[in-house]
Design brief:
Its EC number is 2.7.13.3. The protein has 17 helices and 23 strands. The protein is of the alpha+beta class and 640 residues long. The strands form six sheets. The protein has a five-stranded antiparallel beta sheet. It has a five-stranded antiparallel beta sheet with strand order 13-12-16-15-14.
């Protein structure tokens, strides 16, 4: 609503036109009012003043309507604060029924506000600088621990003199993963995590998504530190997930603005939450990467990975143990340099197929070892693809088939021995018939000679030797057939001394070839055993044969049996050179031998150990270089 502007003619000698000219020429913003403070006239300076402060003359008139005119001859000031925050001072001077009004800006108020604004700008600049530095620090943090330390430095710089607590939790479970406190924290105050209702609403955190029992929401911020009077808090929220909270508390007497601190703390928490989320993602990725690396490195399989350039990028421990080559010696080398020359032509098409994305199964090849030897391995390949589907490399997982191939040879050899055994059984049958006749006729002739007076004693001795030799051949062939016949695994009561003697009989040719002697020291009171006779004979044949092979001519195999408690003990000792310490722990491994090619019976010590353990016993060895070796077999005695 516009105010009515009326010209008031002052009393005096000046003409109205002269007064009007003087009034308009004033540089100071002025107006003329009546006693009711209704504006009668304004000069151009006042209009410019109002326009410069974005107000109208009508607004000024409304402000004067609420004021009181001074007494005649007096003056006073009226303060007017505009919506923009500008403070105006209106000076009212009265003469009779006329009130002159002068307007000016309150320079002191403006100066004070400028100081406050300057301080606010400086504080804002400092805050933004600290937040910027904090952003760099958390971005460069190598882990959650470094990140929390960087946040703590930022909080101390932004809010000096406050006690504060930084808690980082697992977003899925709510479990506490990191804690930093600056101040004297109350006992048990760090859990559970209590969030301020107002802060939760500002961060758009969904309460139903919070872990139950670990996180609660309250209308008030709980005090976590001793000696605190007030508190503010801010949750660490990123992508709708809670990653922790920052609590800050004020000791008594600290002059601070909690509302301002809360705004800054929420701003800081938003920045930190994203960094915590990224740090946890990095930690998870690092853990998964290390786990996969350990899985590949320590897997109980041969694992080899090559890139598109056919360079080796993964060479796990199993391969290192098999070939004797370390990772440092292999990584970065071309795969073809690890394969035998004769395998190069076979390897090329397989590798080319794998690079095209085709899988190859059961590809056998030979890898070179550190000492220049070769090992046979079997691989299955699979291609590693990039996101667009291009082949990035090839992973080969395999196994050592050297032992399998050796086992196949042993099986073939065993089959040949089995065939020879069948042939031997037929030969024995053919020998037994004439030898039985020889024994029968020799016995008849001997009996007749004894009943004939004047018989030549020398002829009788010859007949005795023929009879003994024939019985010896018959006994040997009978035991040989019993030994060669497959065991039925039916234990029977056997004499340990008789079993050892039977094994010695089978080894007579080995003993004679080695030109050693056998010394027996049997205890006569060893009770019988429950055992498979043929299997035990195999054990002692192998141990006696090994002892003969370990000695030079003139050596001695010492056999002893004894009862020790509830066990029957057999010791087979030789006077050979002994077993080297580095081989002593491996002698029971399948196919491990230190004998030259062609020596031995084909029954490995691992088989002997298995036979003894199947009987409930134990097989052990003691050896000293230059002092011989002793194998000890302990077997449980048969129950009465």
């Amino acid at each position: 609503m516009k105010s009515e502007v009326r010209a008031v003619r002052p009393s005096g000698t000046l003409a109205p036109d002269a007064f009007q000219a003087f009034f308009d020429a004033l540089d100071e913003p002025a107006a003329v009012c009546d006693v009711a403070l209704r504006i009668a006239a304004v000069n151009p300076a006042l209009r410019r003043f109002c326009a410069g402060h974005d107000i109208s003359v009508e607004v000024l008139a409304e402000a004067l309507a609420g004021a009181v005119a001074p007494e005649d001859g007096q003056s006073h000031e009226v303060d007017l604060v505009l919506q923009s925050g500008t403070s105006l001072v209106l000076t009212l001077s009265r003469r009779a029924d006329t009130v002159a009004v002068r307007a000016r800006v309150d320079t002191e108020v403006i100066s004070g506000r400028l100081v406050v604004a300057e301080r606010a700008l400086l504080e804002q600049a400092r805050t933004e600088g600290v937040l910027l530095d904090l952003g760099r620090s958390v971005a460069e943090a190598g882990g959650e621990e470094e990140l929390v330390a960087a946040v703590a430095r930022g909080v101390k710089e932004l809010f000096p003199g406050r006690a504060f607590c930084i808690r980082i939790v697992d977003a899925r479970t709510g479990g506490l993963t990191s804690l930093y406190a600056e101040g004297r924290l109350k006992e048990g105050a760090h859990e559970p995590l209590v969030l301020f209702q107002r802060s939760v609403e500002k961060t758009n955190l969904t309460p139903t998504a919070l872990p139950q029992g670990r996180v609660t929401i309250s209308e008030e911020v709980p005090l976590l530190f001793h000696g605190s009077t007030r508190a503010v808090s801010a949750p660490l929220v990123a992508s709708g997930q809670l990653f922790g909270a920052i609590n800050m508390e004020y000791p008594e007497g600290l002059d601070a603005d909690p509302a301002h601190d809360e705004r800054v703390l929420l701003q800081l928490a938003s920045q930190v939450a994203v960094a915590v989320k990224n740090a946890k993602l990095i930690d998870e990725l690092t853990f998964v990467r290390k786990y996969l690396e350990e899985l590949l490195e320590k897997a109980n399989a041969l694992i080899l990975v090559v890139n598109r350039d056919k360079q080796v990028v993964v060479f796990n421990q199993a391969l290192s143990a098999l070939t004797g080559l370390t990772k440092e010696q292999v990584l970065g080398r071309d795969l073809s340099s690890l394969v035998a020359d004769s395998e190069q032509l076979r390897l090329a098409p397989v590798l080319a197929a794998a690079m095209r994305g085709e899988s190859v199964n059961n590809f056998e090849t030979r890898l070179l070892t550190r000492d220049g030897g070769e090992v046979r391995v079997s691989f299955a390949t699979s291609s590693m693809l990039t996101q667009p589907g291009e082949v990035e490399g090839v992973i080969a997982i395999g196994q050592d088939v050297t032992v399998v191939k050796e086992l196949e040879k042993r099986i073939i050899h065993a089959e040949k021995l089995a065939s020879i055994g069948q042939l031997a059984a037929s030969v024995v049958h053919e020998i037994n018939n004439p030898m039985t006749a020889v024994a029968t006729y020799a016995d008849a002739l001997l009996q007749r000679s004894r009943m004939t007076p004047g018989a030549n004693p020398a002829d009788q001795e010859k007949l005795k030797k023929i009879l003994e030799s024939s019985h010896r051949i018959l006994r040997f062939t009978r035991d040989l057939v019993s030994y060669a016949r497959p065991a039925q695994d039916r234990p029977e009561r056997v004499s340990l001394n008789a079993v050892v003697d039977m094994a010695v009989g089978f080894c007579e040719h080995v003993v004679s070839q080695a030109r050693v002697t056998v010394q027996r020291d049997y205890a006569s009171d060893v009770p019988p055993l429950a055992a498979v006779r043929a299997n035990l004979v195999q054990v002692f044949v192998n141990l006696i044969t090994n002892a003969c092979h370990a000695m030079q001519p003139g050596g001695q195999v010492q056999l002893s049996t004894v009862q020790e408690g509830t066990e029957a003990v057999v010791r087979v000792r030789d006077t050979g050179t002994g077993i080297e310490p580095r081989n002593l722990s491996r002698i029971f491994e399948p196919f491990f031998t230190t004998k030259p090619e062609g020596r031995g019976t084909g029954l490995g010590l691992s088989i002997c150990q298995g036979i003894v353990e199947n009987h409930g016993g134990r097989l052990s060895v003691e050896s000293a270089m230059g002092q011989g070796t002793t194998f000890t077999v302990r077997l449980p005695l048969a129950a009465d």
